């Protein structure tokens, strides 16, 4: 089967170099991916063939970690088919078909819009299943709204009035954990292999081991239980980002760490039984019992609101609606801006590792070539200039490499953070959808009372429960804002610090080159 | 008539912005050049229309000074038609049709290869005329080779053995001059206007005035007199580089200054009667008499070698040939490398003022937009982050402008110097051609003696004269090398200094932005 790829960045062939000019967005057929030196032989739709830089093509070079990340999202309607096949992995749920044997190979395939060439192996789409289980489109909040709940003290999730408004109860010591030490394990007499990560929470300081499929299981449970109330961050994609196992494992671990840390920071999630089980189970038996219990948990979906207990005056539905509108507007706008930033960053990454690197290389080469000619003049007193010119040329070649390597040092983290937020923000339409459906139900209450479908007391219960939902949303938004400010403040500083260092490095190198010239 | 332009740099349209994707090298028809904001409305060969950044197109934006310069060369077969018409100028030789009236307008026209749309006004091509007058293809050195010359002491151009080999006699004080104070003059009761420059040599410290056509006249005389022996730098092109008069005049003055300074540095040219006349004529009458005398000078073309007097042992023809080969190889190689550097610089200039500027603007905008959304959160304690993010965004917008403005500060001078050298190197094929023709003649001498076409004494004279030519070429090459080392040393330092300052400015700005974030 012909391998297709899409052109990410327009490229103009240099005459006489067997290069192929391509336009952004064009689809190419890959003829030879093992040309080497960063080149791929490809054919365009007009039948012309030639070499194209592999960095300019999507579906070929997977070394840009954030790129695959940027195609990752929790939106099940948008499955991008960058499939990793036959690698060391354990995506399947069924224990019996658990682990694909490592072949070290990989396949990229680009699904055309509406096309049927999508390859996702046998892994199911977790999010889709969770949604199907819990919601039918927007989950119906009615069952919760009519509940006269008495919260069991153990399950109780208090909401307090803090300085910034309603807030969850935050623990004295914040939970965190370290994900480390990925180890290859085998089963079925070595026929199947998998990676096991070690997770050490700061609460017990005792490591537990988990495979990717356990993270996936946890994600599913959290979506089921809290998906109506909190944005549950997407699990790092199964889709691969690097062509080398080590790189892939490292990147997945980095992202699992980010995922776990974010969940640890959420006071409700962190304190939940299922999350605690994941972090602190003592042995295989403990784990299995805990798993079965969690899967039987009935306080899931909209019913999670029954455990929430705002110790604040009840809000009237108008206030609830106003708050909801504010959050809806904010999350939608932020989602747009985050996507903009990701797309700008994407382009910038491509520029740095593509045309800009090439250009500085050319500048460096041009200076060195001039120096070589000067060297042949036979004129005495030439040496200082030719040496300085050569050094300048080499400096620009170094700058080319620094440029190309820079995105991994700064843009990477900016992209990772924004990708995480894109994932979180993608959860809000559902959360706000449930909330709005509840508001509509409460608006209908008078009519329902008149029709004798509910009693007057039920109407009061509904309003009270809506108020609870609203406090939960407010507490969640305050949690989101506080984390957002922390995260962006941190990542922007990191970005700027690395940018400063980048330019300072260049300054240092240029000064060094400059010092080699004769001063008259 | 439809105005055509060529695409310098591939550009990918953003969807929904009425932009047009174009490929480097593509020819466009310009539909509307006054769209504003750096955009031009254009149509491609497939009939698609849309907006294209004007910086991406050649023949539209003339503000890149070096670009017109880079099309300038002394090769009359390569007349690039970027014609400036109807401006304040005085290109014509005939005094009666001297000055075009200023209209302030200009026309760019791009001549297709072999096409006939070239517009050069009524100005003739100086170089062509000079060559036709003096040479027929390669000037025949025979007339000089057979001359038993007795150098008149006044005209005598001694060649000494210096540390680096044969050298011209350099004066104690190097001549230099300042070209300044361009003034608009009028004639014919104000119907015609011209620009007069003031030239002040350091020898007399007394300013003289000259119009462009006088420089042109001087160039023609120098080509006639010295063109067989020295590379006479091209006169700054008549072709315009800026769309505004002031910019054009400033650029021309800068280049006339460079041209004069280079001639002043040449000991033979600087000391020549015609050059001295140009710099030190006392009044209109003096100028007119001097002009007439110079035009009647018969020691021109190959006969200039009759004035050269090497005070060194005679070289045998084999040595002459070896030297000539060395210089031929060097000048050809350097010509290639200089052209490479110009083309790399050209691309880099376009990158800085085009895609790179745009990209930093987008990055800046993305940060600012994110900040604007954050600002609407209603969450307290937001201000520090939003202010810092806005500042960061503005910083990247500033970096965009710094990037776009940088080539004028550093690349410009590198390009100007290389353009000058491209012009000089373009003269060597003719100089070396005359030299090689002389070598061939001397090789034939034995046969000519046998055929009784020349006497044995003539053969001796020819060998002696060839030796003189060789010393002249060697002295000239040594002059060239010494100037080259000086020029490149200077321009590279300037380039690197400005590059260092550029990156340091960015570091400063980024540090400033960084300092606005909260440190936890």
Automatic annotation (TrEMBL), chains A, B:
<dbReference type="InterPro" id="IPR019497">
    <property type="entry name" value="Sorting_nexin_WASP-bd-dom"/>
</dbReference>
<keyword id="KW-0813">Transport</keyword>
<feature type="domain" description="PX">
    <location>
        <begin position="175"/>
        <end position="285"/>
    </location>
</feature>
<feature type="region of interest" description="Disordered">
    <location>
        <begin position="88"/>
        <end position="123"/>
    </location>
</feature>
<feature type="compositionally biased region" description="Acidic residues">
    <location>
        <begin position="88"/>
        <end position="98"/>
    </location>
</feature>
<dbReference type="GO" id="GO:0035091">
    <property type="term" value="F:phosphatidylinositol binding"/>
</dbReference>
<dbReference type="GO" id="GO:0006897">
    <property type="term" value="P:endocytosis"/>
</dbReference>
<dbReference type="InterPro" id="IPR001683">
    <property type="entry name" value="PX_dom"/>
</dbReference>
<protein>
    <recommendedName>
        <fullName>Sorting nexin</fullName>
    </recommendedName>
</protein>
<dbReference type="Pfam" id="PF00787">
    <property type="entry name" value="PX"/>
</dbReference>
<keyword id="KW-0653">Protein transport</keyword>
<dbReference type="GO" id="GO:0097320">
    <property type="term" value="P:plasma membrane tubulation"/>
</dbReference>
<dbReference type="GO" id="GO:0015031">
    <property type="term" value="P:protein transport"/>
</dbReference>
<dbReference type="InterPro" id="IPR014536">
    <property type="entry name" value="Snx9_fam"/>
</dbReference>
<dbReference type="Pfam" id="PF10456">
    <property type="entry name" value="BAR_3_WASP_bdg"/>
</dbReference>
<feature type="domain" description="SH3">
    <location>
        <begin position="1"/>
        <end position="62"/>
    </location>
</feature>
<feature type="binding site">
    <location>
        <position position="252"/>
    </location>
    <ligand>
        <name>a 1,2-diacyl-sn-glycero-3-phospho-(1D-myo-inositol-4,5-bisphosphate)</name>
    </ligand>
</feature>
<dbReference type="InterPro" id="IPR036871">
    <property type="entry name" value="PX_dom_sf"/>
</dbReference>
<dbReference type="GO" id="GO:0016197">
    <property type="term" value="P:endosomal transport"/>
</dbReference>
<keyword id="KW-0728">SH3 domain</keyword>
<comment type="similarity">
    <text>Belongs to the sorting nexin family.</text>
</comment>
<dbReference type="GO" id="GO:0005886">
    <property type="term" value="C:plasma membrane"/>
</dbReference>
<keyword id="KW-0472">Membrane</keyword>
<feature type="binding site">
    <location>
        <position position="213"/>
    </location>
    <ligand>
        <name>a 1,2-diacyl-sn-glycero-3-phospho-(1D-myo-inositol-4,5-bisphosphate)</name>
    </ligand>
</feature>
<dbReference type="GO" id="GO:0036089">
    <property type="term" value="P:cleavage furrow formation"/>
</dbReference>
<keyword id="KW-0968">Cytoplasmic vesicle</keyword>
<dbReference type="InterPro" id="IPR027267">
    <property type="entry name" value="AH/BAR_dom_sf"/>
</dbReference>
<dbReference type="GO" id="GO:0030659">
    <property type="term" value="C:cytoplasmic vesicle membrane"/>
</dbReference>
<dbReference type="GO" id="GO:0000278">
    <property type="term" value="P:mitotic cell cycle"/>
</dbReference>
<dbReference type="InterPro" id="IPR036028">
    <property type="entry name" value="SH3-like_dom_sf"/>
</dbReference>
<dbReference type="Pfam" id="PF14604">
    <property type="entry name" value="SH3_9"/>
</dbReference>
<dbReference type="InterPro" id="IPR001452">
    <property type="entry name" value="SH3_domain"/>
</dbReference>
<feature type="binding site">
    <location>
        <position position="211"/>
    </location>
    <ligand>
        <name>a 1,2-diacyl-sn-glycero-3-phospho-(1D-myo-inositol-4,5-bisphosphate)</name>
    </ligand>
</feature>
């Amino acid at each position: 089967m012909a391998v297709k790829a899409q052109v990410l960045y327009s490229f103009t062939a240099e005459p006489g170099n067997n290069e192929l000019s391509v336009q952004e967005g064009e689809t190419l057929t890959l003829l030879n991916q093992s040309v080497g030196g960063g080149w791929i032989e490809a054919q365009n739709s007009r039948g012309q063939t030639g070499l194209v830089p592999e960095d300019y093509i999507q579906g070929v070079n997977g070394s840009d970690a954030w790129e695959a990340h940027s195609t990752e999202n929790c939106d099940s309607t948008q499955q991008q088919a960058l499939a990793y096949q036959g690698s060391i992995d354990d995506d399947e749920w069924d224990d019996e078909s658990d682990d694909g044997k490592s072949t070290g190979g990989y396949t990229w395939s680009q699904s055309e819009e509406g096309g049927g060439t999508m390859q996702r192996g046998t892994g199911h789409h977790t999010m889709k299943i969770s949604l199907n289980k819990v919601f039918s489109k927007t989950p119906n909040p009615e069952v919760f709204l009519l509940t006269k709940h008495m919260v069991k003290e153990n399950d109780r999730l208090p909401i307090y009035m803090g300085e910034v408004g309603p807030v969850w109860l935050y623990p004295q010591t914040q939970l965190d954990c370290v994900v480390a030490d990925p180890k290859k394990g085998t089963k079925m007499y070595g026929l199947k292999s998998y990676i096991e990560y070690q997770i050490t929470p700061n609460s017990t300081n005792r490591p537990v081991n988990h495979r990717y499929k356990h993270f996936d299981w946890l994600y599913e449970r959290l979506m089921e239980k809290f998906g109506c109330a909190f944005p549950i961050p997407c699990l790092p994609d199964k889709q691969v980002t690097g062509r080398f196992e080590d790189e892939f494992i490292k990147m997945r671990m980095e992202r699992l760490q980010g995922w776990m840390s974010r969940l640890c920071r959420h006071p409700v999630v962190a304190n939940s039984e299922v999350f605690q089980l994941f972090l602190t189970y003592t042995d295989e038996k403990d784990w299995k019992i805990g798993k079965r219990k969690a899967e039987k948990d009935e306080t899931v979906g909209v019913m999670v609101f029954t455990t929430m207990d705002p110790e604040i005056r009840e809000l009237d539905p108008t206030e609830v609606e106003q708050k909801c509108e504010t959050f809806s507007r904010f999350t939608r706008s932020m989602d747009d801006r985050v996507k903009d930033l990701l797309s700008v960053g994407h382009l910038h990454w491509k520029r740095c590792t593509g045309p800009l690197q090439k250009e500085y290389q050319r500048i460096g080469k041009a200076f060195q070539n001039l120096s070589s000619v000067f060297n042949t003049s036979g004129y005495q007193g030439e040496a200082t200039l030719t040496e300085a010119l050569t050094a300048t040329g080499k400096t620009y070649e170094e700058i080319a490499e620094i440029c190309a390597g820079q995105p991994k040092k700064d843009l990477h983290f900016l992209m990772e953070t924004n990708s995480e937020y894109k994932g979180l923000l993608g959860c809000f339409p559902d959360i706000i959808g449930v909330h709005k459906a509840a508001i509509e139900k409460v608006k209908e209450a008078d009519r329902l009372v008149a029709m004798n479908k509910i009693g007057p007391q039920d109407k009061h219960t509904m309003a009270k429960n809506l108020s609870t939902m609203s406090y939960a949303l407010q507490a969640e938004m305050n949690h989101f804002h506080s984390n957002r400010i922390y995260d962006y403040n941190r990542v922007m500083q990191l970005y700027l610090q690395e940018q400063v260092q980048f330019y300072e490095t260049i300054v240092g190198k240029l000064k060094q080159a400059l010092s080699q010239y004769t001063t008259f």
